[in-house]
Fold this sequence. Notes:
nine-stranded antiparallel beta sheet, 11 strands
Amino acid sequence: KVFRINSNEVYIMKSYYSFLIVAVVLTAISCSPVRYNKVYQIDDEFRNNTKKYTRIHLRPEDRRTEIGSATMIFEKEIDSEGEDVSGYFVVSRSSSSFKVAEDGFMKAGNDKIELKLKDLVSEFKSKSEATISGLASVDSSGTVTGQSADIDTRTWIEDKFIVNLSQEAVKGISEANDVILRFYFGPIPVTYRLDGRKLHSVQRVLKQD
């Protein structure tokens, strides 16, 4: 039995496989792994220092607010003059929310420590997703018909800032069973809790070699 495929069907098949290859490539790029709760060490010959860092992802304790999850990088940098410990924060929030205040707090055990946020940057973000429905067909002129696309666009804001951790804060984190971070976005207070495996990875960064 002989199967015949007309030129329109060949065009659709080529378009489908081209789309499939592009989708696979984009998926592979977007899914490149960013590892959390792991400790890394870099010996930097250009800056003549050594740094250790870990990347943490936390959801807020406060539910149903305009403020979302946070990505944090805790870094310890060691050079001939001593060591510095910093926290780098990226917090997602809705486009209708207020930016983060310059003062925050940390509670480690029974100690409450004030945090000063610096280098604050707010970035507007958007992401569009298209849903294609219908069966495609190609007429004699090469025009594709029979499909429709719905585009959903999501917008949000990311606040980025740095916190330099004092020796008191470093000692508190190193000895605590859990750490609470409190930030304020206009009238909305937001709390992140650092404990378990995530806290342990930060403590490994802070540990004296």
